[in-house]
Amino acid sequence: MAFTRAHHPLHGARRFLRLTLAASLCSLCCTAGIASASPASPETDVFPPWQHGENNDSLDRGLEFTVPQVDVLADFHGNLSSPKLVLFVGGNYFFAMAPLVAQFEKDNPEYRGRIFWETIPPGLLVKQMKAGGTITVGNMTWTVKPDAYFAGLAKVKELIADGTLTAPAVPYVTNQLTIMVRRDNPQHVTSLKDLARPGLRLAMPNPEFEGVSRQIKASLVKAGGDALEKVVYEDKVRDGSTVLTQIHHRQTALFLMQDRADAGVLWKSEALFQEQIGHPLAHVDIPADENTTAIYAGALVNGAPHRQAARQWLSFIQSPAAFQIFQRYGFGKYEPASGPSMQ
């Protein structure tokens, strides 16, 4: 099994389910070394947000106040005052949204500085939509109505069927799974079967609202049958050696860097991003016969306030310019003919 690290640099107590998200995530983790509101030092760079403000298209940002570990809204982007387009995007590609938005605004300058987007897990975005667009993070509550929603194709079709979204579903890229580990792979994880190893600490997406868990379970069954899936998602959860994340695209990387976990399964694009920005992380490839491919899709939200803007984004997301951005992080091109073999 290949142990892989990316070599190219970056281009340019209530339950956690209450959506305290990034700020509360950090307070759950390491309490040492409170940072100031000035730019993060190398020691605090492991804490979200990881893109130094790039995932915010606001033209006037006023007072800059971001304190890693204690005051961070890492998965909420832009200005809520008067957006012309609101996107609810499953967090699996939060890192790609800054260049995507920049390209879209270049092509459609009337939207410059007027896009708001969220990148919490798809299941939580659905809960927010069912709550009328209202969400509470820490001590802040706001309401925003989304124009378009993006997740796995199966989830998008399900939400079209129940009337939450409006057809058609618009598929655009694919992704595959990998095992994220610390740099140099100190626990010598080489395969999905190794995840059953006693004492190996895992960070795994929560099946309750993180759609990737469905693909992960399918791959575990391919690699080691129902027994492997049971060990990882039941036995090790009971004994505490598997921690179920609330927002895996933030927690898995952070828990590994804090030595709270030894491995975690997630999308390969997420691992590549972490390696590209220089975090001490790496990934272990999963062979094709054990891997599972996801199709990413989006659709217009029923009752969207900015329907035309949403249609423009849905058209853009399928464009060659958008795919060039996705390709930086290892996403594949969606080919309709190959759809039936995908999850």
From TrEMBL:
Signal peptide: 1-37
Keywords: Signal
Protein known as: Substrate-binding domain-containing protein
Source organism of the structure: Paraburkholderia agricolaris
Lineage summary: Bacteria, Pseudomonadati, Pseudomonadota, Betaproteobacteria, Burkholderiales
